[in-house]
Amino acid sequence: MPAEPAETATPLEQAVLRALESVIDPEIRKPITELDMVDRVVEAGGGRVDVGIRLTIVGCPASDRIERDVRQAAESVTGAGNAAVELSVMTPEQRAALTERLRGGRARTNPFGPGSLTKVIAVTSGKGGVGKSTITANLAVALAARGLSVGLVDADVHGFSIPGLLGLVDDDGLATRPTRVDDMILPPVSHGVKVISIGMFVEPTAPGGRASSTAVAWRGPMLHRTLSQFLTDVYFGDLDVLLVDLPPGTGDIAISLGQLLPNAEVVVVTTPQAAAADVAERSGVVARQTGQRIVGVVENMAALVQPDGTLLELFGSGGGELVAERLSQGVDGAAGEPVPLLASVPLSMALRQGGDTGVPVVVAAPDDPAARAIEQVAAALSSMPRSLAGRRLDVSVR
Ligand SMILES: Nc1ncnc2c1ncn2[C@@H]1O[C@H](COP(=O)(O)OP(=O)(O)OP(=O)(O)O)[C@@H](O)[C@H]1O
Ligand SMILES: [Mg+2]
Fold this sequence. Notes:
Helix content: 25-40%
CATH class of the largest domain: Alpha Beta
Order of helices and strands: HEEHEHEHEHEEEEHEHEHEEEHEHHH
Structural class: alpha/beta
Bound molecules: adenosine-5'-triphosphate, magnesium ion
Largest sheet: 8 strands, mixed
């Protein structure tokens, strides 16, 4: 029985087909029944069924999981041992139909341009090493845990670190390779977050060499093209939130961001140190100049409460407040708008360890003060209405 004309299916076949609606393709994140992956469900007598599943590509890395989930779903109807699952692969035509359907019939375009309903949040700092990537990775996981559909683009092509922070690396430190379905790239998923990083495309320098050790020389146009390609060729599906981890500095990428993600809102990360605050403020100003709205400041590496109750202010104090205050005032005669300090994330061993092991602290130790502070940022961001900056306010009926 082909999957669609269910009218001719027997009650058992229909029941199994309904059960298969709960099987989600782990990479595309949609039910296999919607992806035309169910080739057949045939009653074989004696209460047994044969199920045929079409995988998108040969050697699909998710095939074991799909087979297991299909068997489990089918056996929830037939009873254990009564479902035979056979895997095959889609024809090029079937695959083309699938990628076209996933794109909603649209041509290859950046789905996050003007009019997009996705909240885009870029995380910037100006200064390097203040914890942008660590905060971004944790924030993404915290937002996904709130039930939002979250994507994360690692736009730091020189020093990508997101795959490692989210455990998307193998034993050699090589980033997970995304699955490709024709020209569509499926982002690997970690803790519910769809992740893409240049680190996933870089070849190791030597056998066993770490991808992250590969030096990549980038110029502005290449950077722009890469970001643009990430946005058009990667299948994120309908996202509630797209987070972008920016490289340190305020250069070309800010301009690309303004062009490619006109709705982007910016979160500025700073340490409590006055010098870092100055640089952070500048990066906020550049973001504004390229048309983005600053939605808040996160202070990171703030005072650590020591076991004896005293505070260890390794990087001083007050930087977050200072940046938020200055950005609220506006610069160069341009009117400011209130920029809140969203949270102050303390120095934390657990946060650092979470980054090293690839299990973010919001998952590994949710009661850690740093995890709680990041949770506070997630709560604040998810309660903010989407920005209308850069968006055409044309009214269209969908
Ligand atoms: N609150 C914190 N407590 C302890 N360690 C932290 C904290 N935040 C970040 N770190 C550590 O500081 C280092 C730098 O963090 P991270 O890579 O996230 O910074 P970054 O701003 O993204 O850096 P870059 O500018 O190079 O992209 C990492 O080793 C990370 O584990
Ligand atoms: Mg970083």
